[in-house]
Amino acid sequence: MDAFATFDTGNTVGGAAATGVLTGAQFGAGAIGTYTSTKSYDTVAVGVPTAVGPGGTIGGPLLHDLGRGIRLKFDARITVAVTSAGAATVAVQFVSSPNADLSANTVLLDSGAIAKATLVIGYRYRHGHTPGIVPGRFVGAQVVIGTAALTAGTYSSGLMLDQEDHADIFG
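Request: output the structure for the sequence above.
Response:
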């Protein structure tokens, strides 16, 4: 997955994997609520992507043909198991907004509330393909923590062309 197509806090290009700590400040320290990702993808960015290959570098603010001619998948997965003193649930949504901060967003794909017992490392939310038409300029992720506060957990989300099926054997 291209680092510029991820929506999580802690994302560093060429560095550590992008993850959102569900008990971090961005998510109200795990409190019940709805939280948007700190990063969004601009669907109408203009310009030319950075050259790839000999003499070029991978990455840049523009994605190389991401989704050109095909619909993308929204991928969200648990990277550290979710824990809670109560019966917590976590939903992950793919949202669209006219604003880069994803305020006033429209939910395009919703995982529904998933119980904490299911949210072990490697769990993948099942969203499928993104809609063919996105109503807002910016897209990103939104997390809904419900029923009880979280005490631990991290997730990762972003856009991808396809996902590998064999990864589920580990989680």
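The mean pLDDT is 76.
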